[in-house]
Design brief:
Helices cover 33% and strands 15% of the residues. With 389 residues, the protein is of the alpha+beta class. The protein has two domains: 159 residues, no CATH class; 143 residues. The protein has a four-stranded antiparallel β-sheet, covered by helices on one side. Helix 1 crosses helix 3 and helix 9 packs across helix 10. It is globular. The chain starts with 28 loop residues before the first strand and ends with a helix.
Length: 389
């Protein structure tokens, strides 16, 4: 019987072995999932439990302590991780996409996290997702590898056409990084990434990809395609339910918390791809090797990184292409090197890996870049001739 006094509410008890013995029904609890495996739990007060540390996302750091600072940090880290599964606002058409689901154009991590949480934070980069702890849903039902996408999302994301779509329909596009219009489509059993950005960007990526394919380094192949009568590039997805990718930016969080050196790890597990990336970027003048378009390939069975993922993203090639040195290399740190210096170092470690001759006709009507490409190619061949590896 209610005697007029406030009744005590149940309080959450979190620990590493039993995530949620009792809970306060007025607080929302989220399960962080890896496929069908629950790996952590967090509530909206910031109280967290790690159930399987080996399978925690590389770029999510949570602590089980319940002091005030830890609770705040847990919430900030959780919101940031969720927000990272949504596209960046510098992405062309981002405002149109966000308007279509009724979200504000200027958003905090918390606002962006709400978007991702509305479609369970699913992504085509990995098998992580989030659900409310009392929600009856499985990864089998919502993962993007096995479930259909809505063609309307392609229309919106590539052309910026306003239309009403649901958060769930936008999930695959919102989780695609980059500043150029792009969208995933399904063809048979394969996912294909279509990228626009105008004729200039498309032509650059197609030419750069053709040149790079003359070298035996693990890489994404870009082919010509058309969408709505306009030329775009197409490439096959490199992730699956078996393999995920972790960007270099995300891996830095993991490395910081595990006392690892990112560059040392690159060279330890896959020096061929790391050095190959610096060689190809120099040859084709790719000036956009930012820390979110290269990184590590992860085996989902163990959540361990096994190599670097294939070299990708060439639609900003032939930049700083008026000098033999090129731009500053973005993958070498902490020291500063030009792309030429980084590429020469690379060929002295792994060689050129050239597997076919390069026909000058490959440049077609883009001959303005031909002379510099062959100058750079000769520069690296000379470096190999004078090296011992």
């Amino acid at each position: 019987m209610n005697n007029g006094l406030l009744q005590p509410k149940t309080i959450i008890e979190l620990n590493d072995n039993n995530a949620r013995k009792r809970y306060n029904p007025d607080i929302t609890y989220y399960d962080i999932m890896h496929g069908e495996r629950k790996v952590a739990e967090i509530n909206m007060r910031g109280e967290a439990a790690i159930l399987d540390e080996k399978f925690i996302p590389y770029d999510l750091y949570l602590e089980k302590d319940c002091d005030f600072d830890t609770l705040i940090n847990n919430m900030n880290n959780f919101y940031h991780w969720c927000a990272s599964r949504v596209l960046s606002l510098d992405r062309k058409y981002a405002k149109e996409i966000l308007n279509s689901i009724g979200m504000a154009q200027a958003m905090t991590d918390r606002d962006r996290a709400k978007i991702a949480l509305s479609y369970h934070c699913v992504s085509l980069t990995d098998v992580y997702w989030v659900k409310k702890s009392d929600e009856d849903i499985s990864y089998e039902k919502i993962n993007l590898y096995d479930n259909s996408l809505n063609e309307a999302v392609v229309e919106l994301s590539l052309r910026g056409k306003p239309m009403t779509v649901t958060n769930q329909e936008l999930a695959p596009d919102l989780s695609t990084k980059g500043c150029f219009p792009k969208a995933w489509i399904r063809r048979g059993k394969d996912f294909i990434l279509l990228k626009d950005g105008g004729d200039d960007s498309v032509q650059k990526e197609l030419l750069a990809s053709r040149l790079c394919q003359c070298f035996d380094f693990k890489q994404v192949k870009y082919d010509e395609d058309f969408y709505d009568g306009q030329k775009v590039t197409q490439s096959k997805i490199i992730t699956s339910r078996q393999y995920s990718i972790v960007s270099k930016m995300a891996f830095e969080i993991y490395a910081l918390n595990h006392d690892l050196n990112v560059l040392n790890e690159c060279l330890r597990i896959d020096k061929e791809t790391y050095y190959g990336m610096n060689i190809l970027d120099y040859l084709v003048g790719n000036i956009d090797r930012h820390p979110e378009n290269w990184g590590f390939l992860v085996d989902n069975r163990t959540n361990e990184y096994v190599s670097l993922y294939p070299i990708m993203d060439f639609n900003q090639s032939f930049g700083s292409y008026d000098t033999i040195d090129g731009a500053n290399c973005q993958t070498v740190y902490p020291e500063k090197k030009t792309q030429r210096e980084a590429a020469i170092e690379a060929v002295r470690h792994v060689g050129m890996h050239q597997i076919k001759d390069i026909d000058e006709e490959i440049f077609e009507d883009m001959t303005v870049w031909k002379e510099m490409f062959f100058r750079r190619l000769e520069e690296l061949k000379n470096a190999v001739d004078t090296s011992v590896f």
